Amino acid sequence: MAVGLRELKMERTRQLIADKAFELFTEHGFDETTVEQIAAAAEVGPRTLYRYFPTKETLIVNFVESQLFSALDRMREQPDDVPVTEAMYALIDSVVLTTAVHESRVLAIYELAGRTESVNAQFSSIWFRWRAAVADEISRRSKRRGGDMAASLAAATVGFVIDVTVHAWVESGGKANMRRLANRALELLRNGEVPVAMPAGRR
User: Does residue 185 come out as left (phi exceeding 0), alpha (psi in the -120 to 50 range) or beta?
Assistant: First the structure.
């Protein structure tokens, strides 16, 4: 369906506001940057900014949420006859590609989240909802009933691979090859090199 001129203009305004906000957050810090400064940089009024982003936190959180659920959409787009493990990798690869395109923004997000408690709390909420949605898709593809523990563990594993991979990439200053990091994490899991807790008396 064709996007109308009004919708296109709104999306451009939203993107411009977000871009200017990240520039200011990176330069001056999240707490020190005011809504008025962001609005001025984007050449919009504060009221217009609030229509797109109700709080400063949403400027950061919305980006993370949209990218995570876009990655989930890529998984859902895989044909049903594609093995579930391959569909899961498509999800991980989508996050890798997003990070490559938005390197400076992802680095800024991790820095801001590390010292902004309100942002971190919202990230946790997004992460929880996203993992539940991934588990539902894995259940559907595996033809298992909803709430299946194996699907929940698989979704959690995907989340951990993404989290550990991105953290390792951030710690490298964005210099490491993220796809190699993700593949290494998956290799460690496949080879049984990651310790798993076992009940007492089990070998």
Answer: alpha
* Amino acid (1-letter code) at residue 122: Q
CB crowding 174-197: b at 16 or more within 10 Å, else e: eeeebbebbbebbeeeeeeeeeee
Q: Within a 13 Å sphere around the CA of 14, how many CA atoms are in the beta-carbon half?
A: 15
> Which of these, 23, 19, 29, lies nearest to 52 by C-alpha position?
19
Query: How does pLDDT run across 138-181, given as a tens digit for each residue?
Result: 999 988 665 589 999 999 999 999 999 999 999 998 899 999 99
* Encoded amino acid at 108, one letter: A
Distance of alpha carbon 39 from alpha carbon 30, whole angstroms: 15
Rg of the chain over all Cα atoms, to the nearest angstrom: 19
| Helix, strand, coil % in the chain, rounded to nearest 5 | 75, 0, 25
The answer to whether 39 touches 52, Cβ cutoff 8 Å, is: no
